[in-house]
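Backbone description:
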Amino acid sequence: MAGILAWFWNERFWLPHNVTWADLKSTEEATFPQAEDLYLAFPLAFCIFMIRLLFERFIAKPCALGLKVQANGPQKAQPNAILEKVFTAITKHPDEKRLEGLSKQLDWDVRSIQRWFRQRRNQEKPSTLTKFCESMWRFTFYLYIFTYGVRFLKKTPWLWNTRQCWSGYPNQPLMPDLHYYYIVELSFYWSLMFSQFIDIKRKDFGIMFTHHIVTVILITFSYVTNLTRVGTLTLCLHDAADIVLEAAKMANYCKCQKLSDLLFLTFAIVFIVSRLGIYPLWILNTTLFELHEALGNFPAWWVLNILLAVLQVLHCFWSYLIIKAAYKAISKGKVAKDDRSDIESSSDEEETGPRSKTSHSTITTNGTGSANGTNGYLTSGTCSEEH
């Protein structure tokens, strides 16, 4: 094990030329980041998760109820043993052939079976109350940590001149405020890594999981190699847009549409400016060029910049989704919507009971009726969008 660790922590890989791990050992005069410090992130991540549970139950939930956020979940599908067995053991999205077989077996029309599966899928999705509580927790944490980061960084020289990130390296003692900032951020992302499997599932689960992994690696790598100055800039920059996003989602859950629209547009501007403008011109510029100029080329320089480039690719992807959502929403007159976990909808969902094939054929063949249903209202509900 000692041999493996010695190979992994090869200073010729992780550190610039003429710098050794001995240069980063803490002394009586100065404290430097140590790998052992990061072990604290695991118990602290558990504490953050427990604080979240308490916050959501005793603070966020009463606030949500006071704001008249809908507490009930989606309409439940009526009990049916056969359909439930298909749903749990075979598929949640039956194809046309299976729908026809179930229609014959149950003497239901295909449309009623489709509606049952749609309602059953919706049962597994969280209520608006649950989503509000999660967003309020994230809003509170991001607001706190962003405020802390700004208060810390405004007193540092590298906020105003990024070349100071590398000035005097490796002799950059670890300040208590910086240590606290790093450990809390790392702990929060570790808590997200674990809680993501029990949180609200969204379409971009895989992308978010990739983002969390890259972030944890970057925080860990930059701390151990004492590249923490540029790390603090990166962390603070990323937290800014998240505050506005969670605020927009909370306003949306409270049905404050105008406020939600305003916040979403603000979020879109902040996100695109910070991630596609400031991030490459400020962060990537200093890690690609100023770091190379100050400390030279070394293998970990490539690792650092590749990981930062992965984040930039994710920024571009999310910016595309934001612009697409904003364009689609403005054209429809509705802006803020977190459609990654929304309820499937259809204009015929108010019909809770199944229709037999006999009654369905009567409707479609009746001289006064039509296949579209009454006044054609059911036509618009034949294709429900799955969010």
Summary: Residues 94 and 117 are 8 Å apart (CA to CA). The radius of gyration is 27 Å. DSSP finds 13 helices and no strands in the chain.
